[in-house]
Structures
1.
Amino acid sequence: MKKNIFKFLIPTSLVAAAPLALAACNTNNADSEKLNKENADLKSQITALNTKLTEANNKLAKFNDKLDVAIGLKSNVWNSFSGDKVAQSLQAYANAKVAFDKMITQDMISTTNVKVNNDKVVLTKPDEGKSIPVVFMDLDETVLDNFKLQNYFLLNGMTYDYNLWSEFVSAGISEEVPGAIDFIKYVWSKGGVVMFNSNRKMSEHKQGSFNNLKALKLEEKYMPDWIWWMKGVDTKSATPWTTTNGFDNKETRMNAVSDKKFTIDGVADISFKVVMRVGDDISDFNDNFTKSKQISLQSINSALYSDESGYGKLFGNTDLNNKSVTYDDKTKTWTKQQWSASYVFIPGNQVYGSWIKQIIGSNDLEYEKSIELIKEYSWKK
């Protein structure tokens, strides 16, 4: 193309110079061909390098996937199979029975207003100044073991997927955290009530949770509508368990049960007191405190040791002098109640929970941040 254009542009007066110009053109063509060959070689080398880089990135991605699995593998195997997990759970629930027996000896507690018939729980109104004892229990990793799902996430390089989570809940296939069902029945047999205080959604997950617990041999009579206080209940309602669009924290739900009187199955002025909270996450107990944006990990640890808050003394408590506490996120203050309570922490779940955000600052256990923290708490730096 260049050659034709060049000839077309040559004036008649320069014809004598044509051989010279054609020689120059041939030289340029040779240089051009050489340059084109060099460019082609360079492109080939770049393509080869890009191929190798892609292969290296793929290997790195696979390595990172294996690293993610390796990081979570020990914890998942321990939670899924170890006798240690079983022993710790059984021990926690055995201690919970002892603590509950102590809590119901308080003067303001009545254990004669809950009757468990063959197919139904019947409540009667407590005497003035008396209340029915309530145990509030989280569900996930407290009553229901979800490590089938956690293992699926791990094997597929995932941390969480809401749709899969909802599908899993609907399937109702979680195993029992050892000792949980027996403890629930024990509380009811002693004149107490067990309520479920989960962040599973009332609107989507109640039926699957009900079916799962029933499959684990918890009879329907122990699961009337009014014991469900999952995410979505509105504590401003006279019947919170019938609502699904509330935004109250777990602690606010528990406070409402202790502070209000309810009409249940036609019986008015039913008074409850929450004497025990059971969970596997620090935020199952006083999440108005532990999930407050202004509260640091150091603040949580300080409160656990503080005599002033009385918060830490409630874990494993059997002393009636240690009163239940509430935390007001607006005033940043603790208030001690007139009755005692005991907190039962079910051990073992290191895979997910509010502790990750408190320590790392996000919902994922990020590798680099975790390493930096470990370096700070290492024998030799």
2.
Amino acid sequence: MLIKSVSAETTWPIRHEVMWPELPMDFVKLENDSKGKHYAIFVNDNIVSCISLFIEGDSAQFRKLATTPQHQRKGCASALINHVKMVCYQDNIKRLWCNARVDKANFYENFGMAKTNKFFTKAGLEFVIMEGIL
């Protein structure tokens, strides 16, 4: 799979389609999108999966991991997580974390991430903060 660096704006349509289709497009735009690194996988010039990485000091958060339904369970999300982990290793990042939907937490555990005791609700969905030490 070929992973490309993209602009934040490139990720907005897939974020919206996959994560929050019932809400306005602005809901998937992040205040600090311009400060992030954004990556995507394309099939036939169409974006099928994306992730955004935000680095602060020796800690990084990945956000907005989204894969179109027809490309789920084909390794796209795994490839993107492994890619951001590699970026973090190269940048000497010590901690990688994310806000995981509780029903998806097991997926992130496959990448060495562990649930913290921090939970929150957003737009009616329950999230847990997960982290991994690199």
3.
Amino acid sequence: MIKALRGMNDILNEKAQIYKHIVEICESVALNFGYSFIETPKLENTSLFKRSVGESSDIVGKEMYEFTDKGGNDVCLRPEGTAGVVRAFIEHKFDKTSGVKRYFYHGSMFRYERPQKGRLREFHQFGIECFGENSIYEDASVIIIGAKILQKLGIKTTLKINSLGDKNCMPEYKNKLVTFLNNIQDELCEDCKRRIQTNPIRVLDCKVDHCKEVLKNAPLIINNLSKECESEFKKLQEILTKNGIKFEIDPKLVRGLDYYTKTAFEFVSDEIGSQSAVLGGGRYDNLVEFLGGKPTYGVGFALGIERIMEILSSKDYKIQRKKIYLCALDDKFIDQIYNLCLNLRDEYEVEISYEAKNATKHLKNADNINANVFLCVGEDEAKNSEIWYKNLQNKQDKKIKISDIKQELKANL
């Protein structure tokens, strides 16, 4: 028997319903904030991610599904979504037009790492990207979108924020940090030693307990911000506070990718074990230019769908659906209910039984599929052009005219 590859799972049945529900919630919030859907290829040139994510990142160094195709091209399966959206933005020359562009996406990402709870080799993300808007209010809006999505899904999280500065304050800060790191490098793990040379700020993101301990006194970018960055960071806190968004300032939050500047944030949850990020992002004003486009402001986030699914599944989360079970007590009424089924499917999800059974068995089937409404035609109903209607939520039970069925459903579903 051929099985799915390790770390690449099927999504079906209850999990498929939850997946679809998460995406629908994400889309509805993003659309209300003026975002439109974009789909980019799952396979891209490897250079796109080496240049955007950064050679120093674990994604590029250890985790990419990279190979040479039959045409001799160095390609890889996308490990994250932002770089592909930026590539599309530049390729279609949107960087040379005025105005603000906002996009949302969802789909598969790929990283070759050890599969574990909420972390797979093929995983799925929902993300948003905004281009061309420099206002700190947009940073706040992106964070608020994330907060609204998680609130609608009923997930409790802690929002952590930081500022990574910009090209005016980062160079001086990096010099201070490298000096500090060089003095303690013998106590650091091998990854941290490597990062001192490639991207020293990533050392602060190390998850090794010993490194966390020796980095306690490391200089922090939040104490070395330019006046402009400091002012914007204070304004961001003010906007979030005024709009009821609680947060914690985490001066060591740097995110896992190299392209972030200024605002960085994560929503973390401890509902699936140790505290981990379920949604994170920030500002990346240099990325479009770095990938060959005209300098363009950018800000966005990505949400890990599998992590959200894991949390909802642990709560025995139920999807509220408007489903109708339609059946007959005799084979001679199947044509009649089939025509009714097609009519109702213009507006509702209808499960029809083509097999005549007694009412008890039909009701059991309706319960098994979590139907909201049970509709059945028998001898008496057929004679009077009626249908047996039962609301399976409030147990209302009656016979109504078939001509009135849509009106009844509209009032109760």
4.
Amino acid sequence: MARYLDCKEKGEVRIFEDTDELATDLADYVADLSELAVKEKGTFAIALSGGSLIGLMSKLCEAPYDKTVDWGKWHVFWADERVVAKTHPESNYRLAKEGLLSKVPVVPGHLHSINDSLSAEEAADDYKFAVRQLVRTRIVSVSDTSDCPKFDLVLLGLGSDGHVASLFPNHPALDEKDEWVSYLTDSPEPPPERITFTLPVINAAANVAVVATGAGKAKAVHLAVDGPSQTDNFQQPPPARMIQPALGRLVWFLDTSAASKLDSYEVTSE
């Protein structure tokens, strides 16, 4: 049975006995947010990352979600992307398309991927322009506290080093305050060229969810949720700890292995 934990300013933490239980709850969560957004404004703007996250979202391809979710109202973005061809094995677009989006009736024109024929810098500028146009047409809302886009949901995985999207520890992209989209040519993980939403954009979202499974993520989860202890060696907080939605809701989806190093928090519901 899932445990729902109150983590104070770090949002809600949901801990599951296994990944199947996690995937089912994640599907319910996404479907509920989709329904709410469509009722309120006619569209659902979701930004995805890559990695194992897409596999966990595969429940959305199954009943009842394949029929009950209003897929035609979805607009899909990428919180980060590798600057490679869409057919490349390391493309987040390809991963999402093969694992989820080709199996549900999302409108092809509502998949807002990067221009993979451009350099990383050019692709970041082009993606920022594309998002800005969709803000102007109100496909994507605008933040109540800044000029940033306000996505209905930004869905992120977590690296074992605490990175989210393509925001890596101690990288200059973490300090970006003005741009919506940044780029990397020196990613510490391959491939080196990437684009990524910046922290101001992620933190402007109405909802942010971070998903982590496995013991290899336990230390990163601890540092992000609990904060560093005196014995932790770090130069700055891990990027995941910087995910602090200004007015939105943050939810962590963890299996018991990823949550194994967390401090104890009060269980609020089950």
